[in-house]
Amino acid sequence: MRRLAVVTVALGLAFAGSTVLAQEHEGAEKKSGAEKEESFAEKHELELKWANFLLLAGLLGYTLGKNAGPFFATRSAGIRRDMDESLRQRKEAEAKAAEVDRRLANLEKDIAALRGQSETEAKVETERMAQQTEAEIVKIQAHAEQEIASAGKAARMALKGYAAELAVGLAEQKVRARMTPDTEDALVQGFVRNLK
To answer: Mind listing the pLDDT tens digit for each residue in 21-72?
Structure first.
């Protein structure tokens, strides 16, 4: 940047010098004595303006050369850091997106596997329930058969008891019908003899 300032000042001086020489040459040819004095003052004023311009341009070039370099270097470094950070964040985002895509791809497989597993478990549970129900039915039937057999046995025994009572009652009626006072005396005497 310093070179730029030096080159700017040198070009300005060269341009100013050539302009002043050209104006002097033109002014000398056109003007006479009194006019030359006026022309000299104008020329002197123009030279001062050029000197001020060159001084200002030189100071501006020097200031820019001194401060612009570090400013632009700092700014470039900041932009580079921001670009690096953006690149890092982009890579992280791409990695996360790839992970999400991988999970989504596996999610369909996982869902299919879970469906298959739940269907298998449902079939196994249905079969287990059917077997358990069948076993319960067999138990209930066996118990019912035992109850029926027990009830039948009790009914037969009750029927036998009733039949025995009826038979005894009929026998008693027949015996009473055949029993006469002579038969009763004979039975009592026979009983007494058996006791002796």
So the answer is: 555 555 555 545 556 666 667 778 888 888 899 889 888 888 877 887 788 8
Q: How many domains does the chain have?
A: 1
Contacts of residue 12, defined as CB under 8 A and 6 or more positions apart, other chains included, come to 50, 53, 54, 57, 58
The answer as to whether 142 is a domain residue is no
User: Which tokens hold the place of 150?
Assistant: 């027990």
**What is the model's pLDDT at position 89?**
94
Give CA–CA dist 22/51, Å, rounded. 17
Instruction: Give 69's contacts (C-beta < 8 A, 6+ positions apart).
Output: 1
In a domain, residue 169? The reply is no
What is the biggest distance separating any 2 CA atoms in the chain, rounded to whole angstroms? 212
Q: Cα–Cα distances in Å, from 182 out to 40, 133, 170, 175, 186?
A: 202, 74, 22, 14, 6
pLDDT of residue 12: 58
Q: Over the stretch 155-180, which tens digit does the pLDDT of each residue have? A: 899 988 998 898 888 888 887 787 78
Tokens (6 digits) for 24? 């002097």
Residue 103 belongs to some domain of the structure: yes
* Cα→Cα distances 56→5, 61, 191, Å: 11, 8, 173
Please count the CA atoms within 13 angstroms of the CA of 24 that sit on its side-chain side.
12
The parent domain of residue 94 ranges over 2-122
In a domain, 21, yes or no: yes
